[in-house]
Write a structure and sequence with these properties.
The protein has about 450 residues and is mostly helical. The protein has a domain of about 170 residues. It has 21 helices and no strands. Helix 1 runs parallel beside helix 9, helix 4 packs across helix 6 and helix 19 packs antiparallel against helix 20.
């Protein structure tokens, strides 16, 4: 398909905004970030609206080129990279990052090469045990073994790993869509999404690894290669734990006998992946980190913030310690009920069920950072739901919270974000008349139906 001048202009805008966001503003430069994302999302919307008329190879190439450019930038909107390097330097010195809090290694007699006070000062949560699973930890160790004394060098290796993961995802998505008889151009929803381009490779977030292995697992399930699919899903869980939410929906599609074999292989793979990190204190310290996540951390919550406000009115204090675990239980219950009531046995319907699960989790959880929306974006392309795309644009506004002299969360911005996201979701349900079991149908069939 011939590439028009307007396509070249849109591609230029996408790449120019990528370069600017990757190399110029800091996390606190809210105005610059928003002003760069506006044309970025406008160009993205232009391409997505072309639908099947879009030149797939051209735009996938632009998506890969944008990520390649960000390989050479240092993360500017997140300081998570410093904990990655802290953990990696522990590992290459034969120490388990789950054994002790970071402050332990600054005490006399416990010093480790590379773990200086200057690096400690850059950690965003030094009072908590690390929470990163083994796939992430393995890349931390590799990066620090190749560049033991260079933060930027280690970050480059981690970014290279995520770039390869993103390339794998972009390679697989059109093939999975084609297998589900959906337009292959829907893969551009993920490949060109501005938030995901900047946050995954640009700011070094391991959602990219989780998504690649999850997509690989879906591709292998589509090909009925169940053993390798189980290994891929295990790797996805070992990159980020979130795919655990989707497992209840596997049982009906696999059947009970095949489910036993599938989960046995997946469980065995997870044991092998976690085994190098497991010792007498691993479960306790890793569990403490997860518990603290639900009881202490709060950022950009939706339903939780509403319940927290009610709690303040009734109790007079922040009830996160009680609300966090209860909302986690509500998420588990909702997903379990949805899996029990789910009658569809097609693999094509799995992404829609997974989209329900991850959105239920994100709507109930206490913390929703911008890169958390990556999973809803990749899953929505297999369905007719599009509210995650609006969410990926609006969640950029939460960077305003880093622009104040001290930490302050602007709840007006949070309210606007979720008012529009929930409003658009309700519009999709009510006026598009999309039912949960119809959300998996091909777009053309959906249009014929209504």
């Amino acid at each position: 398909m011939k590439t028009t001048i307007s396509n070249w202009i849109a591609a230029g805008v996408l790449l120019a905004c990528t370069i600017f966001l990757g190399f110029v503003p800091e996390q606190s430069d809210f105005l610059e970030i928003v002003l760069a994302y506006l044309p970025f999302f406008a160009a993205y919307a232009y391409v997505i609206r072309m639908g099947e008329k879009a030149s797939l190879k051209f735009w996938l190439g632009i998506g890969l080129l944008a990520r390649l450019i960000l390989l050479f930038s240092f993360p500017r909107f997140s300081d998570d990279v410093y904990r990655f390097i802290w953990d990696g330097r522990l590992l290459i010195n034969g120490l388990n990052p789950f054994d002790h809090l970071p402050a332990y290694y600054l005490e006399a007699g416990h010093q480790v090469p590379g773990l200086e006070p200057a690096l400690y000062e850059k950690l965003n949560s030094p009072e908590y045990f690390t929470i990163y699973p083994p796939v992430a930890q393995a890349t931390f160790a590799l990066a620090c073994s190749l560049f033991p004394n260079s933060i930027s060098g280690s970050a480059f290796i981690m970014k290279l790993f995520l770039l390869l993961c993103e390339a794998g995802t972009i390679f697989l998505l059109p093939r999975i869509l084609n297998g589900f008889k959906l337009p292959r151009t829907r893969s551009l929803i993920y490949a060109l999404n501005p938030l995901l381009i900047v946050e995954i490779v640009g700011n070094l977030h391991y959602e990219g690894a989780m998504i690649f292995f999850l997509v690989l697992g879906l591709y292998l399930l589509q090909k009925e290669r169940y053993g390798w699919a189980a290994v891929a899903i295990a790797l996805s869980i070992a990159a980020k734990l979130l795919p655990l939410l989707f497992l209840p929906f596997f049982i009906r599609r696999l059947g009970w006998k095949r489910s036993i074999r599938f989960f046995a292989v997946m469980g065995g793979a997870l044991v092998l992946l976690f085994l190098p990190l497991v010792n007498g204190v691993f479960l306790q310290n890793f569990g403490n980190s997860l518990d603290l996540y639900f009881r202490k951390f709060e950022f950009n919550g939706s339903i939780y913030y509403l319940l927290r406000w009610i709690g303040f009115r009734i109790k007079g204090y922040n009830t996160i310690a009680q609300l966090g675990p209860w909302l986690a239980f509500a998420t588990f219950t909702g997903i379990s009920l949805a899996a029990i009531l789910d009658k569809d046995q097609r693999w094509r319907s799995l992404p829609g069920r997974a989209l329900f699960a991850i959105c239920l989790y994100l709507f109930f959880t206490t913390t929703v950072h911008p890169w958390y929306v990556a999973l809803p974006v990749v899953l929505c392309m297999f369905t007719n739901w599009r509210f995650p795309l609006l969410w990926s644009a609006l969640i950029i506004l939460t960077y305003v919270n880093y622009s104040y002299p001290g930490y302050f969360e602007n709840l007006w911005v949070v309210s606007l974000e979720y008012l529009l996201v929930f409003g658009f979701l309700i519009w999709e349900i009510r006026y598009k008349r999309i039912q949960f079991h119809l959300s998996q149908l091909p777009l053309k069939l959906f249009k014929k139906q209504f």
